[in-house]
Specification:
glycosyltransferase activity, Rossmann fold, Glyco_trans_4-like_N, Glycosyltransferase involved in cell wall biosynthesis, alpha/beta, six-stranded parallel sheet
């Protein structure tokens, strides 16, 4: 039903306006506008953002064939991260596929927080709370830090794992240092990031990692997972840290090193902030996208 509505609506809009390029977002919408049946009459770009938006499309053979036809009929395909090649690879034409990282809204830099890297280490995660984000691993890692280390941990976001994570924090004996803040407005989230020292989100599967980028831009030392989206912009040990997936011991090792040497950790956080604010904004993304548009039009 959705596909029929979108296809009809698409035809109506295109007939009323003189467009140069059609830019379709997600594999579901590529199918909805009828790309699997025939090429559209205008140059067409498809952006793929995640591997879990409609997993049945790739896993079911007949639907995967439809998706391959749709992406083949597109003039160009953009992936937000190289990790998506592992998921959509059989459906892609490498010659007409580009990886173009998402950006983030560049907030005004309010200057260094004088309380940062002094006293208790403030850790934060910002995420939808479901298993794939690995927040249970963070709690397990924090429980293994020796009692003398001074830290607090804030979790911003909501989701199906929230009550389970709260129960786990209590079972591990760290509930007195962990605060679940729930969902917050974006401007409040950015203020919380600007006052924290460490952002940690060991997602098992992260196509890109805008939350990681925003944390880096806010000056947090940022911890992500090697081989996932953040590994495309975090250089481990220089602009942040990368840990193996589902590896509690590695998270413990990094947290111990960060807390034990705040001066070195601050320098890594500052290097990450410079990288994020200079290279990964939406302005940079838009300039790259304009280049792709121009190539399709010409």
């Amino acid at each position: 039903m959705l596909s029929l509505f979108v296809a009809v609506r698409y035809r109506q809009v295109v007939q009323r306006q003189a467009y140069d390029v059609v830019h379709v977002h997600t594999e579901r919408m590529a199918l909805a506008v009828g790309l699997h049946q025939r090429p559209l009459k205008l140059p067409t770009l498809v952006s793929l953002h995640a591997a879990d938006s409609t997993p049945q499309i790739v896993r079911v053979h007949c639907k995967r064939r439809r998706l391959a036809r749709a992406l083949g009929n597109a003039d160009h395909v953009v992936l937000v991260g190289d990790v998506l090649k592992r998921y959509f690879g059989p459906c892609l034409n490498p010659a007409s596929t580009t990886t173009l990282h998402n950006g983030f809204k560049l907030e005004k830099d309010s200057g260094p927080d004088p309380t940062r890297w002094q006293g208790a280490m403030r850790l934060v995660s910002v995420s939808r709370l479901f298993e794939g984000k690995g927040l249970h691993l963070v709690l397990q890692a924090l429980a293994q830090l020796r009692p003398g280390l001074d830290w607090t941990y804030e979790v911003i976001g909501s989701g199906p794992e929230e009550s389970r994570l709260q129960t786990l924090a209590a079972q591990l004996g760290v509930a007195d240092r962990v605060t679940f803040l729930g969902p917050l407005p974006h401007e409040v989230v950015m203020k919380r990031l600007a006052s924290a020292e460490v952002f940690v989100l060991p997602s098992f599967y992260e196509a890109f990692g805008v939350a990681h980028l925003e944390a880096m831009a806010a000056g947090c030392l940022t911890i992500g997972v090697d081989g996932q989206g953040p590994s495309e912009f975090i250089e481990s040990g220089r602009t942040g840290y990368l840990v193996p997936p589902r590896d509690v011991d590695s998270i413990v090792e990094v947290l111990r090193a960060v807390i034990a040497d705040p001066d070195s950790s601050r320098l890594i956080a500052e290097a990450g902030q410079r990288t994020a604010r200079s290279e990964k904004t939406w302005d940079a993304h838009a300039r790259a996208l304009e280049t792709i548009y121009a190539g399709l039009i010409n």
